[in-house]
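To close the section, here is one more complete example, presented without commentary so you can practise reading it yourself. The ligand is pyridoxal-5'-phosphate.
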Amino acid sequence: MDRDTICVQGGYTPGNGEPRQIPIVQSTTFKYNTSEDMGKLFDLEASGYFYSRLQNPTCDYVAKKICELEGGTAAMLTSSGQAANFFALFNICENGDHIVSSSTIYGGTYNLISVTMAKMGISATFVDPLCSEEELAAAFRPNTKAVFGETIANPALTVLDIEKFAKAAHEHGVPLIVDNTFPTPINCRPFEWGADIVTHSTTKYMDGHGAQVGGAIVDSGKFDWMAHKEKFPGLCTPDESYHGITYAEKFGQGGAFITKATSQLMRDFGSTPSPQNAFILNLGLESLHVRMKRHSDNGLAVARFLEKHPKVEYVNYCGLESSPFYEIGQKYLPNGSCGVVSFGLKGGRDAAGIFMKSLRLAAIETHVADARTCCLNPASSTHRQMNDQELEAAGVPAGLVRMSCGLESAEDLIADIAQALDKI
Ligand SMILES: *Cc1c(COP(=O)(O)O)cnc(C)c1O
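Output:
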């Protein structure tokens, strides 16, 4: 089926007389007639539900839809995008292991990898997404277990050369994990370019209405864990906490990764989405294909307007011919990228402050990818602890404004931006 149809009808097919909309199974637990029946579930001998920390039918319908959209073999929801990225990495990395990551990634993920996972004994090397193949190869170590990047980075808006990163990962016998939050599978499907695992913050466009925080992990089923057995003992040797099951043997290439992340990491960390949130997320997914087109069109229209304005110093948006990411954007995102545009004003931080408080439609928020346009000056909010030099090095100069174009009319958004620029 086409992605547009999957958005509307994927993941759940009601039987005769069953609810047309996905049911919210608001139950922590599930009833069985015999202990033997339940024992089979605990042994992973039969599939079914027993406790909503591990799996819940509502969440599974929505995970299945996201799995179909990405073209994967298995998927799971998590309680946030942070949990999705942590689980995706920690499912295959343990104390003593190493990660290669693009340097332009979401700040929360950067902290997760560089600070919190470092405390767990997992080290990382960050590489410029525009690095050469040689520079990328030089970042690998014998203990490297995964490569990580974002299709379109938040907030740097760099575009990942997925084929280049996948090739390097596979030459070193490890999977490429891609956070596909900004383009969503409507504008890019990383599996088609060689990525092995995809993650999402469903809080963003997938929900699209700023109504729930959530995440998702999807497996392409293409990575052959058993061919690199020595690197991935968690998947390829018996799990003593599950009566000696070897995930890669029992669930195969298509199912091992998600089964392990569910039955081990979700069991132990409990980053479980609520069925209510999964239901709300599904309402967003039903119109994702319609909304992404408008977000991308509005992003491009705003970027083009800003680029020509005399008070604007630079604009980051891969849909602009002047962008260093234009060509790579045309390759991976031919139908549009997303609604997030970042730009710098000639008057720097002070001008950004005047501009933002003069906006009427765009609200100042720590959020992106919402139906309502919002904006943020990272230097005075999320990156407040950094001085101007540190901000420059992190790719978020003091005067940078991140604007997430919503679903309003492009004319109204541009008129609002124009009047706010006049106030500087
Ligand atoms: C927001 C975001 C995250 C974190 O997601 P939460 O749902 O806020 O936990 C991860 N990656 C990217 C690209 C994001 O934009």
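Once you have examined the tokens, check your reading against these statements. The CA atoms of residues 128 and 144 lie 17 Å apart. The pocket of pyridoxal-5'-phosphate is lined by residues 80-82, 85, 106, 108-109, 150, 154, 179, 181, 201, 203-204, 213, 215 (CB under 6 Å).
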